[in-house]
């Protein structure tokens, strides 16, 4: 699975509508409104690299109200479960 983190600048007056439209796009798993230089963060998950071109410039960037986007491709995922295993001392949790 290929994961892309897409940072989106949106027309400020349309942020909720832009977020909802992006969330409806196939392969977009989550959309968050955030503080900072960008307004939204969208997580895109696809099986093939070529699908990113279909989803991000092909659909997401064409949503009315999207002003700019910046895409980052994830190399590796570290879930909370993985982090707990990495720092485990091999001791059973005490109940």
Description:
- The chain is α+β, with helices and mostly antiparallel strands and 95 residues long.
- The chain has a single domain, classed as Lrp/AsnC effector binding domain/regulation of amino acid metabolism (RAM) domain (Alpha-Beta Plaits, 2-Layer Sandwich).
- The chain has a four-stranded antiparallel sheet with strand order 2-3-1-4.
- Strand 2 and strand 3 form a beta hairpin.
- The longest helix is centred in the N-terminal third of the chain and has 9 residues.
- The model has no long low-confidence stretch (mean pLDDT 90).
* Largest sheet properties: 4 strands, antiparallel
| Unreliable segments of 5+ consecutive residues | none
Derived from helix and strand composition plus strand pairing, the structural class reads alpha+beta
Strand order of the largest sheet: 2-3-1-4
Rounded Rg: 17 Å
Give the name of the CATH superfamily: Lrp/AsnC effector binding domain/regulation of amino acid metabolism (RAM) domain
Estimate what percentage of residues fall within beta strands: 25-35%
N-C termini distance? 36 Å
CATH architecture: 2-Layer Sandwich
Tally of separate domains: 1
**The CATH top-level class label:** Alpha Beta
Helix share of residues? 10-25%
Q: What's the helix-strand series?
A: EHEEHEH
